[in-house]
Design a protein that fits this description.
By secondary structure, the chain is an alpha/beta fold. Helices cover 29% and strands 23% of the residues.
Length: 965
């Protein structure tokens, strides 16, 4: 068989999965082929002593990995191979035996030679006298060989996260590789990196306790993980650290193992900010201190003279701040010229041959847009907005630059509108959407992502790197398969589908509003039962995660707790705590007897957060102590609090009805109805009204009766019509009682009806509650088509369109798991010219409305930024053949709007339309510019209530039998 990722072969999940994104070539039953391990014998590993030290180190890892998997330790051989089977590992030009096999035509390395980080894994018969079969791992260069070695390690059952997440090694008695195996691979993105940043207190204190700091011992673990994940580039921890200054052997270790080093976007010339703090003299200001700064930068080049690196160029203000107001384009261009002269002076090489980047971060991009230019051989590193939205991508002209372009991305951030550092809040669907655009627009020379403390971000970090290695292996429709393959590799196939769904859902829930940004009123306590629904959904996910965890083998439960269960439970707990704080305040205003119970719940949930942290820190004998110590509660501005602060709660002293001057009988019973903030009794409130019961929704409504005193009371509810169904018609209330109200739809007369409920309480006090019932005579669930209005709104998930239209060469693409609620719809290709409505790139949605007149259409999109020069990206909408309204999504470029958009994770736009008649209509959505992702459409026909997520999707008829594939 020919196994090649370049051919676009997709991963199919076998009974056992130990590879992610690479076609399986290791047989775990030891069938015919190259016998890596059979019986008591393991095939020797044949290396060349003249190969790169990093290759030899990785080969030693392979030797240990084979022993861990099979219990058999392969012999270590240099020079000639011996034995019936062998594993021959080496780099072209560095391994005499591999070079000989290539000359003899036993392995074909013609397409491998000269490639960047390419590798070949091939089974060979009779490679040399005395050896019947061999598995050859040949690399085009140092890292190519290393990646080939670790690919085999992953295939035999060693997760890249074996040490970093305690994923146990899968044990197998025999391993073999079929004789027709030939796999060749190489990366699509040249530099694929991570940035350890915002690393205090968690990673910093953990590293100090375990290794003594960010030293050689720490970085050896980091480098090995990176190489197993096929990364090659690092911006090291730098908040209080200096990579080359803290441990003088750090640089040599990186180069030896094969890691390309850099420094962050604001640390030029291979010098850390902390080095300037320790050794610098004078101001960090080139206009006033140029000589000192040049000497400082020259030292950075001398310290790294012989090491592989990508040099960060130009300059920002000290401490990652903007340059001074006096800085200008001429000064910055002079800085770059002087820095390149230093490269020539210190490295003795033409600067054009030395990899360099200019990070266009925050205000630095403004300098570029104002005309600042750097030599074409320098890489332009475009950046996101720190919230996962790429600010700019290359134009067609910029794509011609020899230095190429890249992207600096974020899974973690310290800054406004609110720092987010605690847990994984990143959906891989969002990463895919943004990095797919980067790839299509040619920003694919270097990708680096801020991973914060690393530990909470394992899932998106690996996806980012896997996608950088080969974007074509993971198209949008394979994103669920990616998570399932990841789960199967780490925890086995039996529960992989459930685990993948858990990870997809918790990251979606966290991305709606980052935990650090939650507040008591984030989710509506009344509209659409929103707060209750999101808490229930998250708590259901907790139960699912715990059930799966208990069903897993004991050996994988530590890994599962770190990678899945802890983030789910901790996130759900935080959400419920904030919603409970909101409920507590609401109940206090209502005078509920359960106010103090809700305050106690907030306290329990706050304490439970600490319990979960202790469980994380105590696992594996305290291996991960400090790693979840990031503060997350108590923010008052963008900066992290120094301690966690529980949300404020209120407590009531309830009146005693028997006491003189105590609460009167008429005030003891409180009543609220679903979806309303009104509370009975209240001055002037004659009656209350439930949301209409709707034949298309067929969902019950509810009212709540609650006690406002210390003593319980009796109540009764009487319905005006026999077709009303009540969950409770009478009873005794100590604290509160929810009563469900439904109808017998077969008995309800056609048309609009209205029933009444009479609620009686203490001393005969009573209130009337009206119950509207909607069962139109001219429309039924059997005759309806499309989404049907309910409670004055029509809410539509974007993927549930009725028809799609696209001109030639264009198409609509569903991104599963994208956004707040379900998925997103975008257009392909991503890098394409703008269209007009006449081009017909549109989605159509059939809807049924019950009234004519004016209505508003709300479009909910992903928070795309204007990543190409121009006036902004546009979409258009209409209803039926009414006026087509174009909307510029970038018309508002204020900081206030951006703050709201990134905090919400969506961009919302409203247009006003008019229809002349009720009945069936068609909503049309045109995508005029690429890069837009539609999540939802909501028609407000007069009933829309303010809420965070908007109303649930409206009923659709005929009922869809299965989800859209």
């Amino acid at each position: 068989m020919l196994c090649s990722l370049a051919l676009g072969l997709c991963l199919a999940l076998p009974a056992k999965v130990h590879a992610l994104g690479t076609p399986r070539f290791v047989d775990l039953q030891g069938k015919e082929g190259v016998r890596l391990v059979a019986g008591a014998r393991a095939a020797p590993i044949v290396v060349d002593k003249d190969d790169f030290p990093g290759v030899l180190r990785a080969a030693r890892d392979l030797q240990r990995d084979l022993q861990a998997v099979t219990g058999r330790t392969p012999q270590w051989q240099t020079g000639a191979a011996a034995g019936s089977d062998a594993i021959i590992v080496g780099t072209l030009g560095r391994h005499a035996l591999i070079d000989a096999l290539a000359r003899q035509g036993k392995i074909d390395t013609r397409s491998l030679a000269g490639q960047w980080e390419g590798f070949l894994i091939q089974a060979v018969t009779d490679p040399v006298p005395g050896v019947k079969r061999a598995l050859v791992i040949a690399g085009s260069d140092k890292r190519g060989t290393i990646y080939g070695i670790y690919t085999l390690s992953e295939q035999i059952g060693v997760s890249p996260w074996h040490w970093w997440a305690d994923v146990p090694v899968a044990r197998h008695a025999a391993l073999s590789v079929p004789l027709d195996t030939r796999l060749m691979d190489k990366p699509a993105v040249q530099y694929r990196g991570i940035f350890l940043n915002d690393e205090a207190p968690a990673l910093t204190n953990w590293a100090k306790e375990r290794f003594g700091g960010f030293n050689r011992k720490f970085y050896e673990r980091i480098f090995e993980l990176m190489l197993r994940l096929r990364a090659n580039y690092l911006w090291p921890a730098m908040w209080g650290s200096a990579f080359y200054d803290d441990d003088k052997s750090n640089g040599e270790l990186a180069d030896s193992m094969g890691i390309v080093m850099g420094t962050s976007h604001h640390e030029p010339m291979m010098r850390a900010q902390q080095e300037w703090a320790r050794h610098g003299k004078g101001p960090w200001d080139y206009s006033r201190n140029a000589d000192t700064l040049r000497d400082f930068w020259a030292g950075g080049l001398r310290n790294t003279r012989d090491y592989e690196k990508v040099i960060t160029m130009a300059m920002r203000g000290d401490g990652d701040e903007p340059m001074s107001e006096s800085a200008n384009v001429d000064l910055l261009e002079r800085i770059v010229r002087d820095q390149r002269a230093l490269i020539q002076q210190e490295l003795g090489r033409d600067p054009a041959s030395v990899p360099q980047l200019w990070a266009l971060y925050k205000e630095v991009q403004d300098y570029y847009e104002k005309g600042m230019r750097v030599p074409d051989d320098m890489l332009l590193l475009w950046c996101d907005d720190n919230w996962g939205n790429i600010r700019r991508l290359p134009t067609p002209e910029e794509r011609k630059r020899s230095g190429g372009a890249g992207v600096y991305y974020h899974f973690d951030y310290v800054g406004g509108p609110r720092s987010y550092k605690w847990l994984n809040v990143t959906q891989i669907a969002k990463v895919w959407e943004q990095m797919n655009l980067a790839n299509e627009y040619g920003a694919n020379r270097l990708w680096i992502v801020n991973v914060g403390d690393l530990k909470p971000m394992e899932v998106p970090t690996e996806f980012f790197l896997a996608y950088a290695w080969n974007p074509s292996a993971w198209p949008a429709d394979k994103l669920p398969a990616y998570l399932e393959a990841w789960a199967a590799r780490e925890f086995g196939t039996q529960h992989a589908g459930r685990i993948a769904a858990i990870v997809e859902r918790y990251t979606r829930y966290n991305a709606r509003r980052r935990p650090e940004q939650l507040a008591p009123d984030t989710y509506s306590l009344t509209a659409y039962d929103e707060a209750e629904r999101v808490v229930n959904d998250y708590n259901a996910l907790v139960l699912e995660a715990q059930q799966v965890g208990k069903a897993l083998p004991k050996a994988v439960q530590d890994a599962y707790f770190q990678l899945v269960e802890y983030p789910v439970r901790a996130s759900a707990n935080a959400l419920e705590m904030w919603v409970s704080a909101g409920r507590n305040a609401q109940y206090a205003r209502q005078g509920r007897a359960s106010t103090n119970d809700m305050a106690a719940r907030v306290r329990r949930l706050f304490a439970h957060d600490a319990e979960l942290t202790r469980a994380y820190h105590g696992a594996r004998g305290g291996k991960w102590k400090h790693m979840m110590s990031q503060t997350r509660f108590g923010y008052t501005n963008w900066a992290q609090p120094y301690r966690d602060v529980m949300p404020a709660v209120a407590e009531l002293r309830l009146p005693d009805p028997a006491s003189p001057g105590g609460i009167g009988a008429a005030d003891r019973m409180g009543v609220v109805v679903q979806g309303s903030q009104a509370v009975w009794p209240a001055y002037g409130l004659q009656h209350m009204t439930l949301p209409a019961l709707d034949v298309f929704e067929r969902q019950p409504r509810y009212l709540e009766l609650f006690n406002r005193s210390r003593e319980p009371f009796e109540y009764a509810v009487k319905a005006s019509h026999p077709w009303i169904r009540l969950s409770h018609a009478m009873g005794r209330i100590d604290k509160e009682q929810r009563i469900l109200v439904d109808v017998d739809w077969d008995a309800v007369p056609a048309g609009r009806s209205e029933a009444e409920l009479t609620v009686s309480g203490p001393d005969g006090d009573r209130v009337t509650i009206k119950v509207p019932v909607h069962k139109p005579a001219d429309l039924s669930p059997q005759s309806a088509q499309g989404h049907v209005e309910s409670r004055g709104v029509v809410a539509i998930e974007a993927e549930n369109f009725s028809r799609e239209h696209a001109p030639g060469g264009r198409g609509w693409l569903r991104i599963p798991g994208y956004g707040q609620t379900l998925s997103g719809m975008t257009t392909t290709p991503g890098a394409a010219p703008a269209l007009t409505p006449a081009d017909g790139m549109r989605l159509e949605y059939d809807v049924h409305l019950f009234r004519g007149g004016e209505l508003k259409l709300h479009a909910v999109l992903g928070p795309a930024l204007k990543f190409q020069p121009g006036k902004g990206f546009r979409f258009a909408v209409s209803i039926d053949d009414g006026p087509v309204q174009e909307v510029n999504v970038h018309a508002d470029e204020s900081e206030q709007y951006w703050n709201r958009m990134v905090s919400d994770g969506v961009a919302k736009f409203t247009t006003t339309h008019r229809i002349e008649r009720p009945g069936r209509h068609t909503v049309k959505f045109w995508a005029l510019d690429p890069g837009l992702v539609l999540q939802r459409l909501v028609i407000d026909a007069g009933g829309l209530q303010p809420s965070y997520l908007g109303p649930p999707e409206s009923p659709y008829y005929p009922v869809r039998e299965a989800a859209r594939p």
